[in-house]
Amino acid sequence: MTSAYAIEVEALTKTFGTLKAVDGLSFTVEYGSVVGFIGPNGAGKTTTMRSLVGHVRPDAGRVHVAGRPYRDLADPLGTVGAVLETGAVHPGRSGRNHLRILARQAGIPRRRVEEVIDGVGLGQAAGRRVGGYSLGMRQRLALAAALLGDPAILMLDEPANGLDPEGIRWLREFLRGLAAQGRGVLVSSHGLPELALMIDEAVVVGHGQLITQQPLADLRKLGGGPTVQISVPEPDRLAALLREQGHQVLECAGPIVTVAGDDARSVGRVAFDHGIGVHRLLVEEPSLEEAYFRLTTGKDSIR
Ligand SMILES: Nc1ncnc2c1ncn2[C@@H]1O[C@H](COP(=O)(O)OP(=O)(O)OP(=O)(O)O)[C@@H](O)[C@H]1O
Ligand SMILES: [Mg+2]
Fold first, then answer.
1. Which residue in 31, 92, 187, 290 is a FRET match for 278, CA 20 to 30 A apart?
2. How far is it, in rounded angstroms, from Cα 222 to Cα 241?
3. Residue 106 Cα distances to 75, 100, 101, 130, 138, angstroms
4. C-alpha 84 to ligand 1 mean position (Å)
């Protein structure tokens, strides 16, 4: 029986000494979607991911991949690929040799090594010593290793770390592609905006607890609604006129008047009708960064 969920965490608790690293955490990841696992440093993300692949033994709760505990999977490498840490590779080996050794140990055919090298865009670097790899190349190599068994579930701990903008764009397309093939992907980060273009849903955690699990579009709304910002030489006068016309003026700071809503046209019209010159007029969309801060303020971490 395969489970409806790629990943299912239910009431997971893990304590180190007196510290509750994970505290009654529950969330799910569906096949065909990329879920961001997001929270400040020390929120319990890595501990949760390590529990999912059996590196950490939970004190309580259930951590299932493909419907069962990791240790009960008949074909672990073919079920879930995890990138939990980089740098555990023999520095004198080439990336290709490293992957060949992993493939041999797992009984995976050699040709699969070339497929994953191509898949992650390691290219020429595959033949070079891992000791000379940049952080971004190490991330790609670790991803290649996780993909060797062609797993339907991927779990990546901070994969955007060390990637340049080009690499982040590549990662985004790559993860979207995996989800489009029906795979379930869990990807952690300590910021929401970095993942905004990669994920369908976000699981936001703080102090080892779930803050919220929501589609990205809903989270965006938590950042507040859109606003119109208009920059003029007479901001106070314009603010008063806008209020008279029924606009909700949120702020008047320096030359900029901020108005609730996205009706730039009617805001601009008020200025025009009263002969106020407009230097700048724009609509600001609700910000994910703002949403993230509203959710997580006071939830960091170093405990
Ligand atoms: N093996 C361990 N022994 C003791 N404490 C640990 C251990 N692993 C994690 N912790 C503690 O558990 C808490 C959660 O750590 P975890 O690494 O899961 O957080 P994180 O969300 O991954 O943080 P970051 O964003 O910094 O990677 C931290 O306070 C950390 O110090
Ligand atoms: Mg971590």
1. 290
2. 29
3. 10, 10, 9, 21, 21
4. 13
Instruction: Give per-residue pLDDT as tens, 110-145.
Output: 999 999 999 999 989 999 999 999 888 888 999 999
- The residue whose C-alpha atom lies closest to atom 7 belonging to ligand 1 is 16
Model confidence at 287: pLDDT above 80: no
Each residue's pLDDT tens digit, 255-268? 999 999 999 999 99
Pocket of ligand 1 contains residue 51 by CB under 6 Å? no
Residues 169 and 234 in one domain: no
Q: What are phi and psi of 81, to 5 degrees?
A: -110, 130
Q: Tell me, what CATH number does 44's domain have? A: 3.40.50.300
Q: Is the CB of 21 under 6 A from ligand 1?
A: yes
- For the Cβ of 44 lying below 6 angstroms from any atom of ligand 1, the answer is yes
Residues 6+ apart with CB under 8 A from 8: 28, 29, 62, 63, 64, 67
Which tokens hold the place of 213?
């699990």
Nearest atom in ligand 1 to the alpha carbon of residue 40 is 25
- 45 three-state secondary structure: helix
Strand order, beta sheet including 280-284:
249-253, 256-260, 227-231, 280-284
What atom of ligand 1 comes closest to residue 208's alpha carbon? 14
Per the structure, how many domains does the chain have? 2
Q: Which mutation among 47, 155, 302 tests ligand 1's pocket best, with the greatest number of atoms within 8 A of CB?
A: 47
